[in-house]
Structure formats: C-alpha cells, structure tokens
Amino acid sequence: MRTLTIGLLISLAVAHGVLPQDAGTTRSQPIRGRVVDARDNVPLRRARVVASSGDRQMDAVFTDDEGRFSVANAPADALTLRTSKAGYVTGLVTVSAGNADTQLRLALARGAAVMGRVVDAFGAPVSGAYVTGRLTGAGGERMPATSSQFFTQTDRLGEYRLGSLLAGRYEITAVQIPPALRPPGVRPEDLLFGPPGSLDAAGERSTMVLLTGDEARGIDFTTPGPVETCPTGLSRLPADGAAVGAIVGRVMDASGEPIACAAVRIVTPETSTPAVFTNRLGRYSLDGLPAGSFVLEARKLGYITLLYGQRHPSDTALPVTLREGEQRTRDDADQALTSRIDGRSNPRPPADRTSSATPARPHNA
Prior knowledge:
Helices cover 2% and strands 38% of the residues. It is mostly beta strands. The protein folds into three domains: 5-108, Carboxypeptidase-like, regulatory domain (Immunoglobulin-like, Sandwich); 112-222, Immunoglobulins (Immunoglobulin-like); 227-365, Carboxypeptidase-like, regulatory domain (Immunoglobulin-like), CATH 2.60.40.1120. A hairpin with a 6-residue loop joins β25 and β26 (306-307). The two termini are 43 Å apart.
C-alpha cells in the first residue's frame, strides 16, 4: 500500500554546533534520534527510518526498544528522513547540510484506517482489485499527489485495509484495471489516478471524514467488471450408442444467491471427468455419465470447498447414484444435486473483527 506523508513534530538539539563540510563528504557524527508516539510520548520500537539525498537512498535503520536510532556515514548534504511504522502516519523531515551529531525527536501520529470487501455482481470476492482514495479535505487539494492519493489491493478473499492515513476528508472507491491497460513499466497509480473512463470502477463512492486513529469498517464495493464466461459442454464424451445420464443442478452461496463460474467436478476415484462451470445463474450440467455412484465437489476462490452431503470437512460425503441413462435434475422426485457454499474461508480473521465464516454445505435442491 502506498502511504501518506506529512510533516513530523520535531525538536532539534545540536550538541556540538554546525560543522561545515565539503559536498560529497560524510558527516563527522551519526544522525541520532528518537521516535515516539505523538499522543503520549511512548517510544516506538521497530520504527523504520530511511535517509536519502537526492536519488541516493541509504539502508533502512530501525529503532530499538527505547525508540532510538542512529544513521551512520550519512552524506554531509541535506538529507530527507522518512519514518514509518504500521498504524502510524508516515512522515518526512529534512536535515540541513552539514549538521553533525544532530539529535532528533520524531513524533508520529496514529493513522486512521478504512476496511471492507470488494465483490462482483454475483457477490463473489474480487481479488486483486484496487481500492483508491483521495484526500479532499484539510488542504488535500493543495497537497502533492504523493500525500493526497493512496491505494491498496484486495486479497484472495476480496478484503482490503487502508491504514496509516492522515486525518481528513476522503473519497474512496474500488477500481479494476483491464489487462489491456497494463503495459510494462507503467505504474498502477498512473492509471488509477489518471483519466477514469477506461477503468472498471464501482458505481458507488464512499465519502467520509476520518479522525486520528479512526477505523472505518464495512466499506464495501461492488465492481461491474466484464461478465464472466466459463467453459461449457459435455464433461466427458460417451461411447457411441451408450445409454448415458447426467446430473444437473445449481451452486449457490449461503444467502441463496447463484455463484457464477464455480467449478463442479466428480471426484470419485474410478471416474475421471474434467470440471464443468456454472453459468451466471449458478447452473451446471455434468453430462455423458454412465450408471454408477458419484461424489461431486463444487469450488470457487474465496469459498469453503466441501463435497456433496458434507456440512463440515470431517463429514462423510453423500454419493449421487445414477441408473443407466438416468438424468438427475432438480425436477426429479428426490431432486438433483445443488451445492450450497456457506460463508468464506478466512484462516486469520483480524482480532478486532467478528468472523461469521461457516463451512460449505452442499445439499439437495
């Protein structure tokens, strides 16, 4: 995620005065300092400090248990120190040329955060979508782009978190970049904050005011994106003249909404068939099947995968039995397979967020 930049609260104490040095030489003493929380002056351990001069960037140093750091062999030129720590607003400060043994007190303010989820038109999670934001208040329109524009990407569950944000008024939305607009060497931000006409942007935008340390949760978006197209057709080719059957059904989520492009396949060891995919109504058809007993599986990224008949992964699967030439559909007396996928997998839910994930539960329609 690209972080915001603000000025730091600084107190300078020069122990031995300013020592003029020639350009290109190093300072006679390290640049030392301490990083603390701006609210209560508590030292910040493992804060990251990076010094740079022009295009030259020095290796990062980290604060110790007392929040102290030391930058040795720094150029005598003017330096920029960038200080960052998770949960805090990243800050920049300039140290003038030639200062020796400079003692810095760097106070970082706690940042705000925005969290939510991005789904497609079918309610399925969208991974790799960009969530963008612009600082529109508190002087944001006068700030450089590096300080007023930010973005992050969703994870495999469609979830995102924008953290370390400066207090202010923001406009946030979700965007997908079509593959044709991703030429090599082009930075994502050049596309995300450029002309918006060619991007697949969510129809809604969220405008909010964030205070220091705020956490805005449940800021969800639905991206239009292209209509999903999935492979269709026979799952296997029957022998000429064979009486073959089929299993027809639907795949739905926990609320009963259809899931498009879910893969449905037979996992019975003695029967090998490629997966078929559900259409936009969640329907599928496993065709060209001989008589026999079959175990079915439905899966899609972001959902818990279970076999038909299971309520939990430890449950026994329920086979679907076909007579020769039988067509098992939802109109049959005992009805065909309909896989219901309940909840979504999240092995590490945030400690301060309530997780409602439940296992998938294939069932009869």
